Amino acid sequence: MNKLNLLSLALVAALPTSAYAELKISGYGSLIAGKTLGTVNDPLNPGQTRDEILTADFYDVGQYDNDITFKAESILAVQATYSFSPELSMTAQLVAKGVDDFSPEFDWYYVTYQATDNLSFMAGRRNIPMYYFSEYAEVGYAYPWMRPPSNLYWWQVTQFDGAHVMYSFDIGDYSSTITAFYGNEYSNDNVEMLYYDKLYGGSAQTVNEFWTDITGFNWNVSGDWFDLRFVYFQNDRDRETIQQDGSINPYTPFSQTFIGVGGSATLSDFTLLFDMNFVEYDDAVGTEFPTYLVSLVYNWGDFQPYIAYSKADHERTKVPTEDLEEHYMLSYGVRYDFLPNAALKLQYDDFVDQGHEPTGWAYHGDARAISFGIDFVF
Amino acid sequence: MFNVKPFNVMKVCMLITMFCLFTPTFVLANVSIIVHPSNDSSFDKASIKKIFLGKSKRFSNGKTAILISADHSDPATSEFNSKVIGKSSSQIKAYWSKILFTGKGTPPQEMSSNGEIINAISSNPDAIGFISADAVSDSVKVVATF
Q1: Cα separation of B89 and A22, whole Å?
Q2: Is any Cβ of chain A less than 8 angstroms from the Cβ of B83?
Q3: What pairs with residue A281 in β-bridges?
Q4: pLDDT tens digit string along B63-119?
Q5: What mean pLDDT comes out for the span A62-74?
Q6: The pLDDT of residue B10
Q7: Measured between beta carbons, which residues in chain A are less than 8 angstroms from residue B64?
Q8: What are A93's strand-pairing partners?
Q9: Across the interface, do A136 and B103 touch by the CB < 8 Å criterion?
């Protein structure tokens, strides 16, 4: 990367500005192995036991069971950014995931136009800026844990094709950025939704999941010792569950709103990370998902021991149903920055399913898992 | 109000001394922030920090800053990160990795020798960098030393 940069810097210096062109290659990756530690009574097949299953990546259905695997959440990504001019650039990320047998796909591609110092536009395929860690959820090097708590980062749609407008300004000593975004995602052959269909005994050919008119904003404020982010967006939801005979299950479309506040604060040697979110459907039963996460990290030289608690709940406000999906995860681990661009991580997760078993809402089942590996950037 | 016995004071002093002995202290050269001699912008620790975190894009003279960093093996890097930014080099790398891989900015360019850094800064009116204070030469302007 350095040599390439030097070369391009030299080129930039040597050429007139009209011929401005620069290519930058960078990347990130995680090589992580893990397994669960025991067996549980299968919540969907009473009387039977099965391996504990910890879903590390809901979107891609990357899971750990009793057999150690590298495939659940290992990832390698290469990013190329080509600058046509100081204002205009194009970025693409080629991402290979263990869950896809490392077959590479262009997961991100977008153009960026820096109109002024404070105003920029992006258009293309990116992660939906949902949770505090959503945009860089796969960049393991960027946070202390093995992964952002997967029982919150559980949505079947994480990316979209859209447009973003970003405006930065200072509020006193604080830096602030407001990002407005709009986009759509037509997720054909949705992996997570097909997994649920099979889990509940279905045999659908495929499930197509549609999130349309995704419209919202983020507001980020940061100072010397803290970073705070608000998010609001809404979108329309629709789904096609296509059976083997080609018939499509009836489905009632609805709209959802997502609001949240998350951030980090560093006080002395401790960093507090938190994220609180609330998702609401305008469906017939009044579905709501309140979720939150809180984590404390101790910055001890090259070591960052941490603890994280994340809780997800599922409620219906328009019908008298109390117990649906509900779970929490308690994770302990340590990150060790053993090289300037690589970190070793070890994490223990205790996933506790508090869902309502008789109605099938305890479908995850309890799980205890160990995972370890390396996150790196280049 | 407090009846402090000399014995206790001594004990406390001993404890503090022991604590200091066992706390690693790194004695390193100071780090100097350098710019092109023609750059007449004003700098203080807060403005340097904002520039190197990508939160300010311009110098007070209105020009867009071009950031140059020593590489990770240079002690000046950890010195700069801890004294000016207040974070470890790994924390800074993690900070930039979320910005870089979400397309919201570009980290400072790393250069591997003092000569290279001085060369780049002395030949670019808008560049800013840092090097070990004892490696400074006349071809660049020191705006602060920490």
Answers
A1: 26
A2: no
A3: A256
A4: 999 999 998 888 999 999 999 999 999 999 999 999 999 999 999 999 999 999 999
A5: 97
A6: 52
A7: 117
A8: A79, A108
A9: no
Query: Is residue A310 within 8 Å of A291, Cβ to Cβ?
Result: yes
CA distance B107 to A28: 14
**How far apart, in whole angstroms, are the C-alpha atoms of residue A115 and residue A266?**
33
Q: Is the pLDDT of residue A17 over 50?
A: no
Instruction: Give the number of A-B residue pairs with CB atoms closer than 8 Å.
Output: 72
The question of ipTM being above 0.95 is answered as no
Amino acid at residue number A191: V
Q: How far is B14 from chain A (nearest CA, A)?
A: 24
- pLDDT tens by residue, A281-292: 999 999 999 999
Closest-CA residue to A203 (of A173, A164, A165, A242) = A242
Q: What three-state secondary structure class fits A38?
A: coil
B60 touches chain A (CB under 8 A): no
Query: Which candidate, A333, A334, A369, places its Cα nearest to that of A35?
Result: A369
Pick from B53, B31, B119, B63: which is nearest to A168 by CA? B53
CA dist A260 and A274 (Å) reads: 11
CA atoms within 13 A on the CB side of A370: 5
Q: Does B97 touch chain A (CB under 8 A)?
A: yes
Contact A24, A350 (CB under 8 A): no
d(CA B39, CA A320): 69
Mean pLDDT of A202-230: 96
pLDDT of residue A377: 97
What's the confidence (pLDDT) of residue A10? 45
CB contact under 8 A, B90 and A81: no
Average pLDDT for residues A34-51, to the nearest whole number?
Answer: 93
Q: Give the closest of B58, B64, B72 to A340, CB-based.
A: B72
Q: Which amino acid is at A23?
A: L
What does the block give as tokens for A86? 């100081």
Strands B109-111 and B66-70: parallel
- Hey, are the CB atoms on A91 and B103 less than 8 Å from each other? yes
Q: Do A2 and B112 touch (CB under 8 A)?
A: yes
Instruction: Name the strand (E) or helix (H) holding B129.
Output: strand B127-132
Q: Do B110 and A135 touch (CB under 8 A)?
A: no
Q: Which residue of A has its CA nearest to B49?
A: A224
